[in-house]
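JOB MANIFEST
job_type = single_chain_structure
chain_count = 1
residues = 423
[input]
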Amino acid sequence: MSTTYQGQTTVNLTDLIAPCYYDLHWDILDGNHTYYDLYGGRGSAKSSDISIEIIYGMMNDAINGEFTNAVIFRKYAVTLRESVYEQIQWAIDALEVSDMWESKVSPLQFVYKPTGQKIIFRGLDKPKKTKSIKSSKGYFKYLWFEELDEFAGMEEIRTVQQSVLRGGDKFVVFKSFNPPISRSNWANKYVAEPREDSYRLHTDYTMIPVEWLGQQFIDDAEHLKRTNERAYNHEYLGHAVGLGTNVFELLDIRTITDDEIEKCQSIYQGQDWGWFPDPKAFIRLAYIPNKEEVILLDEMGGPKIRNAKMANMIKEKGYDDYQIHCGVDEEESIIDFKDAGLPARKAIVAPGSRKYTFEWLQCRTLVIDPARTPKSYNEIINYEHEVDKNGEVIADYPDGDDHWIDAIRYATSPLSMRRGESA
């Protein structure tokens, strides 16, 4: 990959774009997606790559006779000058096209001299002001939300996009951030929800050439790895490791393929009955004993669902092929399932079984595909121990917003409550 503008020195893009971003670069050129979500740890060169893509993209658009502009957002305007503005200046210098761009600081902007295309910078201290963002020529093709987790949430982001993404056929919207430590943070949840129009890429410093980072950076990272692996996983690898109050720490959030499901053999199913306004919750999962993994395969349920309808939903999926272990507090509902032809029975319970089934699950890796089991995913990542007035973690397990979690406990009760089994 290389580029030359108006007879200037050829610049090899491979000297500026790390190999982990090559596929993303071609994806942008091919126009395959609208949204590009880049997240990861320190030193992963996310911002460097985005700034190169914006400058390269705008100049390439100009060559093709397309007049495009860019707008770059941070939550607070005061942070723009020392962050994204300097980053764009770096990209211009790195591409060796400084003489073709004019930089201004009042207001903050860059202007491409041959055409007048602009890169402007805005803070979202007051997001409604984005309605006043206009371009006298062309349209805003490129948007960049830096430090995504600082914004108030997707509603705020959507407000901006609805105001700015107008007047063109193709848009490129970048969102970049270092994942917050809490799995329940809205930005972490956002990138875990699949979207066909989004290209998601998680990177870390191990994917970047050492000479780009410097040996001191590597030494600092390795030192933290030796002395505080949890902090290392969060800060340098960019993982949402939790605040220490998450009930479930061993999570593998990823895509689960149909082929993988077909190979699963040890299938377990659970049913929590709920009580309005609580939902009925059904779960189907697989257990891989040699890996100690619980793979969530499918879920069903919701509020105001009668037992007969719930039973039909389960049978329509063909999930009457394995036993369904149910909450023991509604024996009449279990009878309803049996009358409907389902192999329903009480979950295995004993004194202290609530605590024990939780502990058993905490010692296993929960494999979750948010696209397949979104309700279970949301419950699990948001399920945290309560904290007392002194900031101490309460060891008990909270009751509430845990219906699919309970279904998982019931489903695995034949395993967790097996005599001689250890959590």
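[summary]
Confidence is low (pLDDT under 50) at residues 419-423.
DSSP finds 15 helices and 17 strands in the chain.
exit_status = 0
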